[in-house]
């Protein structure tokens, strides 16, 4: 192709130089293919916002230069199709988008790279297996999506490169390690944050009772049970209150469990006088979707209530707040949703996550380290319901004392951190009754409060300050005895506070009597 016929560099995606971590990833990918030769499949992981599209576009460019063969890039969303084509133009690589209107490619020699949606290409290959020729490398974007497997049969003796932020197939029977020989892990979320390539997140978690949710055959919470919970007035009020407290005035993206709930969110916000909100779901026409996303991009403080449709293929760096108005058991979906707010701009280096589904208890904070190599090798572990049940349970048992609570107990501060589990284990080891754990915990709090209160009023006030600590101690105790029904825990909490109040009153009264005797002497 002559120089004058080459595509113009697209300003948005024009790249002068890759970041160091991107260069390193590029080197590792080509090192693998150089060592293994053709007919080898490689999976590459990089967090959302880390520049997967930019990296694999450079892979495509260098592959064409090295081998003289063509590259095919597969996507499953039209936004990804356009985004990838523009990125390739940005680095000067001629490419052709195979859309639904393209029935044949007569001038293949004019292009080094083809980009296609998986369903469209599958239809063309079913009609003609030689629809595309001289393909040496197939790049699969969002490779955790199982829909791509149907294409693989048409390409023999080629290299495959799958890219994803979460190398975990949602289908236990179709693990990624059966299709890809090796996983290369790119920079971690925490590394990208510390080097200012991604925004710094702040997570605000609101406790939600998920007892009414049911798990479906796909392993995630069902839409029907989720819509019943999140469509309730209490949850709608909690959502609005959380937005007003933590996200008011920011560009906000809300993820909901179903279309009905999303429309309810739209109506509820407007009823509360918050009118800068729109709703988007898969039933919207292409033009409606385009208009809504344009409005969202160009409107300060805009709120977009959505259902699933924006988890992938959506790139709007100006998003400042992500609201998870749903619960999920999918690690992949959790990372995809939050990742929509992680991109850095010249005016944005932080973003907020409002979690209304206990999701961070289930998976950990978004920025926490995940051993993706372990996920790739042992995917069953991360698809097992009981695994995340136990992880969530253990995370909920951890209580971190706020600084203002610690400051209220300058005397004998260490007593705040009584380990209830250790107390219980010690009693059992000595052959004593486990229920003495609660008595010991109460006595510990009595002594702590009496040492830090010089009057009955202050003592009662400190009991209120310790309510979260008391609830945590009860959680830990009931976890030890594997008996944690709501009624039993409510009984323990009432009993604990009653005994604690009596103990504090007695201890402070005795202190006052001793002080009076000392004064008389």
Descriptive overview:
By secondary structure, the chain is an alpha/beta fold. It folds into three domains: 185 residues, Rossmann fold, CATH 3.40.50.300; 177 residues, Rossmann fold (3-Layer(aba) Sandwich), CATH 3.40.50; 118 residues, no CATH class. Helix content is 46%, strand content 12%. It has a seven-stranded parallel beta sheet with strand order 3-4-2-5-6-1-7. Strands 8-13-12-9-11-10 form a six-stranded parallel beta sheet, sandwiched between helices. The longest helix is centred in the last third of the chain and has 35 residues.
Within the CATH hierarchy, at the fold level, what is the topology of the largest domain? Answer: Rossmann fold
Number of helices: 21
Fourth-tier CATH superfamily name of the largest domain? P-loop containing nucleotide triphosphate hydrolases
Classify the secondary structure makeup into a structural class. alpha/beta
Q: Low-confidence runs (pLDDT<50, min 5 residues)?
A: 1-11
Question: How do the strands and helices of this protein lay out in sequence?
Answer:
Layout: H1 20-36, E1 41-45, H2 52-67, E2 70-75, H3 78-90, E3 95-98, E4 113-117, H4 118-127, E5 135-141, H5 149-152, E6 159-164, E7 182-185, H6 189-194, E8 200-205, H7 223-230, H8 233-246, E9 252-255, H9 259-271, E10 277-280, H10 286-298, E11 303-306, E12 321-324, H11 331-339, E13 350-355, H12 359-363, H13 372-377, H14 379-383, H15 385-396, H16 403-406, H17 420-429, H18 436-452, H19 456-465, H20 467-480, H21 486-520
Parallel strand pairs: 1-6, 1-7, 2-4, 2-5, 3-4, 5-6, 8-13, 9-11, 9-12, 10-11, 12-13
């Amino acid at each position: 192709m002559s120089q004058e016929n080459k595509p113009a560099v697209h300003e948005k995606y024009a790249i002068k130089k890759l970041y160091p971590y991107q260069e390193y990833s590029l080197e590792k990918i080509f090192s693998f293919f150089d060592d293994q030769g053709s007919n080898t499949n490689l999976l590459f992981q990089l967090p959302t916002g880390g520049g997967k599209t930019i990296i694999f576009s450079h892979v495509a460019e260098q592959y064409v230069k090295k081998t003289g063969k063509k590259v095919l890039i597969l996507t499953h969303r039209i936004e990804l199709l356009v985004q990838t084509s523009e990125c390739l133009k940005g680095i000067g690589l001629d490419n052709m988008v195979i859309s639904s209107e393209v029935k044949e490619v007569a001038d293949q020699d004019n292009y080094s790279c083809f980009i296609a949606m998986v369903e469209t290409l599958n239809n063309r290959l079913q009609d003609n297996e030689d629809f595309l020729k001289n393909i040496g490398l197939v790049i699969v974007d969002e490779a955790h999506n199982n829909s791509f497997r149907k294409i693989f049969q048409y390409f023999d003796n080629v290299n495959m490169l799958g890219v994803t932020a979460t190398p975990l197939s949602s289908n236990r029977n179709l693990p990624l390690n059966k299709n890809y020989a090796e996983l290369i892990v790119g920079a971690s979320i925490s590394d990208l944050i510390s080097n200012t390539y991604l925004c710094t997140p702040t997570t605000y978690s609101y406790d939600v009772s998920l007892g009414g949710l049911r798990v479906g055959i796909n392993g995630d919470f069902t839409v029907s049970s989720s819509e019943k919970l999140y469509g309730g007035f209490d949850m709608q009020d909690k959502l609005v209150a959380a937005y007003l407290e933590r996200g008011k005035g920011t560009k906000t993206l809300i993820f909901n469990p179903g279309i009905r709930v999303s429309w309810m969110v739209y109506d509820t916000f407007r009823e509360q006088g918050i009118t800068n909100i729109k709703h988007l779901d898969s039933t919207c026409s292409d033009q409606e979707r385009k208009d809504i996303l344009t409005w969202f991009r160009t409107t300060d403080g805009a709120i977009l209530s959505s259902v699933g449709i924006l988890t992938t293929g959506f790139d709007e760096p100006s998003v400042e707040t992500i609201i998870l108005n749903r619960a999920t058991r999918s690690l992949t979906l959790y990372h995809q949703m939050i990742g929509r707010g992680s991109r850095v701009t010249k005016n944005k280096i932080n973003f907020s996550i409002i979690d209304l589904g206990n999701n961070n208890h289930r998976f950990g904070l978004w920025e926490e380290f995940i051993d993706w190599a372990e996920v790739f090798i042992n995917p069953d572990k991360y698809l097992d319901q009981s695994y995340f049940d136990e992880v969530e349970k253990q995370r909920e048992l951890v209580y971190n004392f706020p600084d203002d609570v610690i400051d209220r107990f300058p005397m004998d501060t260490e007593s705040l951190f009584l380990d209830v589990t250790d107390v219980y284990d010690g009693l059992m080891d000595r052959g004593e009754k486990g229920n003495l754990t609660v008595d010991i915990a109460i006595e510990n709090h009595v002594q702590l409060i009496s040492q830090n209160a010089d009057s009955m009023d202050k003592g009662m006030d400190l009991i209120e300050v310790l309510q979260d600590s008391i609830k945590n101690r009860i959680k830990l105790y009931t976890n030890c005895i594997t008996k944690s029904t709501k009624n039993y825990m409510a009984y323990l909490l009432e009993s604990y506070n009653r005994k604690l109040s009596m103990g504090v009153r007695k201890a402070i009264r005795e202190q006052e009597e001793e002080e009076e005797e000392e004064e008389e002497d």
